[in-house]
Design goal:
single chain, 133 residues, alpha+beta, Nuclear Transport Factor 2, Chain: A, six-stranded mixed beta sheet
């Protein structure tokens, strides 16, 4: 399994935070969907733990992966059920399914940069925390 897939499957879905030491550079940069930049492996691990706590059944259906040298783009469908507080939002018990495309830069077998992009408005609407337009 590629280091990119291990970020999704091992760290986020399975919750094996220690895998980050194997697949992420110590100083990895992670740009979240909000535009915030998390710096370092520990911040990514904290993010993954928060995501898993809020959506304990989180899953990713990988649709395509493109590689061009050190750059990898992954297109996926992310699913989960909102079970615990996240970023001040109270859980609703609602399920979501949204599409996303994340880009990664991999050097010497480790992820050094991640840019996440998925349908956050659709996610928030499906979770019942934002009204549908």
């Amino acid at each position: 399994m590629s280091v990119v897939r291990r970020c999704f499957e091992d760290i986020i879905v399975r919750g094996d935070i220690a895998v980050a030491d194997e697949v992420l550079a110590k100083d990895v940069l992670f740009t979240t969907v909000t535009g915030a930049v998390l710096r370092g492996r520990r911040e990514f691990q904290h993010f993954a733990e928060q995501l898993r706590n809020a959506f304990p059944d989180i899953s990713f259906e990988m649709e395509e992966e493109f590689t061009d040298g050190e750059h990898v783009s992954t297109r996926y469908v992310m699913r989960g059920t909102f079970q615990s507080t996240l970023m001040g939002l109270l859980p609703t018990g609602e399920e979501f399914a949204v599409r996303g495309i994340d880009t990664f830069r991999v050097l010497d077998g480790k992820v050094v940069e991640i840019h996440a992009c998925y349908d956050t408005l659709g996610q928030l609407q499906q979770l019942g925390v934002v009204p549908k337009i």
